[in-house]
Specification:
The complex is a heterodimer of chains A (178) and B (238). In chain A, α2 (21-152) crosses α3. Chain A has 178 residues and is mainly alpha-helical. Chain A has helices at residues 2-6, 21-152, 158-177. Helices cover 88% and strands 0% of the residues of chain A. Chain A has three helices and no strands. With 238 residues, chain B is mainly alpha-helical. Helix content of chain B is 73%, strand content 6%. In chain B, β3 (98-100) and β4 form a beta hairpin. The longest helix of chain B is centred in the C-terminal third of the chain and has 38 residues, at 197-234. The chains are: A mainly alpha (178), B mainly alpha (238). At the A-B interface, α1 and α2 of A face β1, β2, α1, α2 and α4 of B. Chain A: Residues 60-88, 121-135 have a biased composition (Basic and acidic residues). Chain A: It is found in: Cell membrane; Endomembrane system.
Chain lengths: 178, 238
């Protein structure tokens, strides 16, 4: 070893014995390295990673919450919509029934009116017929009495004659009715 | 192992300068890599922040594979730093090897057994500490050394040492062998003139690619085993 002979002042080579100090040196340099990395890289990095994990979990939670909110809102809308449908249906059916009722009422009133009009008309007709009949009876009776008194020139008691003719006319009426 | 190293003595302890330089270089690379990626952190991550978060999520996944999420939380930083540190350490020697006067100053620090053993001691120390703080000293002692039977004690103690040795030596062996073979391929390239340069170059490329794979796997295995040990210590076996 040429270099060794040239530089023997620094190198103790094998004669130096077991380098037991390197145990200490290795341990110290490893611990120092660990401390430096902890201080400059590990702590900020793990803090950042924790923050990120927190943020992600928060985001997931809030997303879940807003999804639930949206669902609830949609459900409310749906309910309101179906309720308004129902309302509209009830309003329509109410209107229908009341219109029907009103119509029926109008019809029945009209029918009653017509009935009463008819009845009063019939009554009037009957009355008129009766009046006419009575007038005719009187006229016929008087006429007959005059004719009879003129024909027979016989003094007849007006009342007796009238009774007689009345009975005739009654008999006539019965024949007509048959 | 028989390469020349430069050392100095301080407080009666011997220090290996080459190894120290490698460790400082790795620590600096790791720190500036992480530092650069962690600037301007945002809620919605940018590209570089995504890279960092991907690594963090990955190492968190490694720890939560053996521990419950609640138990694993305090070890997230340790898992992250350990993984990145080992990853850079394992790869450094493949790309950068600076030698001065025959002494290699910059190479993979994990190709040195002292470094890997120190990291293994730290990992197991953390595991035992976690066990004591979780179960109390009595419960820890019972679940670690007196299971399944009381007279299993010697075997359990032996197992702890075996854990320590395998954890440290596995990493060291893999990385050291990788660098050794790469050095041999290098020597081979110029041993017979220009004839072997091109085949050696191809061989060296293949070996570097394989070593990158090995280094990645080994840093992964180290972290996973650390958490397996921690989980063994804090969960009393029924």
């Amino acid at each position: 070893m040429l270099s060794q002979t040239l530089f023997s002042s620094v190198s103790a080579t094998e004669a130096g014995g077991f380098p037991i100090g390197n145990i200490l040196f290795t341990a110290i340099i490893f611990l120092v390295l660990m401390w430096l990395i902890k201080h400059f890289a590990w702590k900020p990095l793990s803090e950042m990673m924790t923050q990120r994990a927190d943020k992600i979990s928060n985001d997931i939670t809030s997303a879940e919450k807003s999804r639930k909110d949206a669902e609830e809102l949609a459900k409310k809308r749906e309910d309101a919509l179906s309720k308004s449908h129902e309302d509209a249906n009830t309003i329509i059916s109410d209107a229908k029934t009341s219109a029907q009722k009103q119509g029926e009422q109008i019809v029945s009133e009209a029918r009653n009116d017509a009935q009463s009009v008819k009845a009063s008309a019939q009554k009037d007709i009957e009355q008129e017929r009766k009046d006419a009949l009575a007038n005719t009876k009187d006229d016929v009776a008087n006429l007959s009495v005059e004719i009879a008194s003129k024909i027979i020139q016989k003094e007849l008691k007006s009342d007796d004659q009238k009774a007689l003719i009345d009975s005739y006319i009654e008999g006539l009426g019965k024949q007509n009715a048959r | 192992m028989d390469e020349p190293i430069s050392t100095f003595k301080l407080f009666g302890l011997t220090f290996d300068v080459g190894n120290m330089v490698s460790l400082v270089v790795v620590a600096a690379i790791v720190f500036f890599f992480v530092f650069a990626l962690s600037r301007k952190l945002q809620m919605i991550p940018t590209k570089k922040q995504n890279i960092l978060e991907m690594i963090v999520e990955y190492t968190n996944g490694l720890s939560t594979n053996s521990l419950s999420a609640k138990n694993a939380k305090p070890y997230g930083l340790y898992a992250f730093v350990l993984f990145v540190f080992l990853f850079i350490s394992n790869q450094l020697g493949l790309f950068l090897e600076i030698a001065y006067n025959g002494v290699t100053y910059v190479k993979s620090p994990t190709s040195n057994p002292i470094v890997t053993m120190t990291l293994a001691v730290m990992a197991l120390g953390l595991a035992h500490f976690a066990g004591v703080s979780k179960l109390g000293f009595k419960g820890y002692f019972k679940s670690t050394y007196l299971k399944p039977f009381k007279f299993w004690l010697p075997l359990n103690i032996f197992e702890e040492f075996a854990n320590f040795l395998t954890l440290g030596l596995r990493l060291f062996g893999n990385i050291f062998a990788g660098e050794l073979l790469l050095g041999m391929v290098n020597n081979l390239a110029f041993s017979h003139g220009v004839v072997l340069v091109i085949p050696s170059f191809i061989l060296g490329m293949a070996w570097v690619a394989f070593s990158i794979f090995i280094g990645t796997i080994q840093s992964l295995v180290f972290v996973i085993l650390t958490f397996v040990y921690i989980s063994q210590k804090i969960q009393p076996e029924e």
